[in-house]
Amino acid sequence: MSDIVTLDINAILRQLPHRYPFLLVDRVTECRKGESIVALKNVTYNEPYFPGHFPHRPVMPGVLMLEALAQAAALLAFDTLGETPDDQTVYYFAGID
Fold first, then answer.
1. Measured at the alpha carbon of residue 58, what is the angle toward residues 52 and 62, in degrees to the nearest 5?
2. How far is it, in rounded angstroms, from Cα 70 to Cα 18?
3. Which helix (H) or strand (E) holds 7?
4. How far apart are CA 45 and CA 15, in angstroms?
5. 84 burial type by CB count under 10 A (0-12 exposed, 13-18 middle, 19+ buried)
6. SS3 96
7. In sequence order, what are the residues at sequence separation of 6 or more whose Cβ sits closer than 8 angstroms to the Cβ of residue 89?
8. What pLDDT does 95 receive?
9. The whole model's pTM is what?
10. 23: left (phi over 0), alpha (psi -120 to 50) or beta
């Protein structure tokens, strides 16, 4: 069984280049190196997309859900590789199956 890592917002900000409003991971409650990650995004009614995305039944847009998944996957990958990206590191979400 692998060690479980948790990340607060400060650790996430060191790993990801994203900032408000596109930082979509607020906390990692469980990260198992090379296996899995459980991450949280605190969503409130005040999110800027709610007034126009199903206004009477607010829903987080699917494309933002995928972006949140991609950010969580990057955190898992960095933990698995034991790396912290620097300002010269460039990485992109290229696709999903």
1. 80
2. 12
3. strand 4-7
4. 27
5. exposed
6. coil
7. none
8. 87
9. 0.91
10. beta
| Residue with tokens 């999110």, as numbered in its chain | 47
Helices (H), ranges, 1-97: 9-15, 62-81
Q: For residue 13, what pLDDT is reported?
A: 97
Other C-beta atoms closer than 10 Å to the C-beta of 54 total 11
Provide the pLDDT for residue 17. Answer: 93
Catalytic residues: 53
Task: Compute CA distances 47 → 34, 38, 44, 56, 63, whole Å.
Answer: 32, 22, 6, 14, 15
DSSP string, 15-41: H----TTS----EEEEEETTTEEEEE-
Closest of 41, 68, 65 to residue 53, by C-alpha: 65
Q: Record the tokens describing residue 76, joined without a space.
A: 């898992």
Q: Which among 31, 12, 75 has a CA at the least distance from the CA of 93? A: 75
Tokens 């997309």 -> residue: 49
Quick check: 64 and 52 in contact, CB under 8 A? no
